[in-house]
Design brief:
About 25% of the residues lie in helices and about 20% in strands. It is built from 3 helices and 7 strands; from the N terminus they run E-H-H-E-E-E-E-E-E-H. It is elongated and about 70 Å long. This is PH domain-containing protein.
C-alpha cells in the first residue's frame, strides 16, 4: 500500500495577514431580555408552612370556627405568589395581591429610594406607585431596562 502524504493547511505568513482597522470593530451590546420580573423569594413559602403547622393546634382546638385560622397562611401564600414587578423596555407592570397597575417609562418622573423598603415610582401625575420586590440594589438593572431613562448609579462618580 502506498501512503499519500497528508496535506497541512496553508498558514499565512506574518506579513500577509490582512490588517483590519480597530475602529471598524465595535463591541456588541448584549441583547436586553423582553422583560425582567422582580418577585418575593419563593423560599418565604417555608415561613408560611411554619405558620400553618403552628396554627394547627389552635385551629383544631376551637373546631369548627378555629379552622378560619388557616386563612392567614393561605392569604400570606397568595400574597407571596402574586406580588411582583415586571419591567420591559417600554413599560412597568406592578401586581399586588389585590390589584395591579401599568405605566410607561415616559410617565416616570423620579424614584423614591429607601434602603430598607421597596422603591416607589413617582409619575407625572404626582401619584406614587410602590414597585414590589424592587430594592435599591436593583437600580442598575432597572436603568438598563428603562433604556437610559433612569440614570445608572454605578456609572456615576
Amino acid at each position: 500500500m502506498s501512503e499519500t502524504p497528508q496535506q497541512q493547511p496553508e498558514q499565512p505568513e506574518d506579513d500577509q495577514v490582512a490588517e483590519t482597522p480597530a475602529s471598524s470593530e465595535q463591541p456588541k451590546q448584549p441583547e436586553l431580555p423582553k422583560s425582567l420580573t422582580f418577585r418575593i423569594t419563593p423560599v418565604s413559602q417555608l415561613a408560611v408552612l411554619a405558620i400553618l403547622v403552628c396554627a394547627t393546634p389552635l385551629a383544631w382546638a376551637a373546631y369548627p370556627w378555629g379552622l378560619l385560622v388557616y386563612l392567614i397562611p393561605l392569604g400570606l401564600s397568595w400574597w407571596i405568589v402574586r406580588t411582583r414587578t415586571t419591567v420591559s423596555p417600554e413599560r412597568v407592570a406592578v401586581r399586588t395581591a389585590l390589584s395591579g397597575d401599568r405605566f410607561d417609562w415616559d410617565e416616570v418622573v423620579s424614584l423614591h429610594l429607601d434602603e430598607k423598603r421597596w422603591l416607589k415610582a413617582v409619575l407625572t401625575s404626582g401619584k406614587e406607585i410602590t414597585l414590589p420586590a424592587v430594592r435599591v440594589r436593583d437600580l442598575p438593572r432597572l436603568s438598563v431596562m428603562s433604556g437610559g431613562r433612569l440614570p445608572n448609579p454605578e456609572s456615576q462618580e
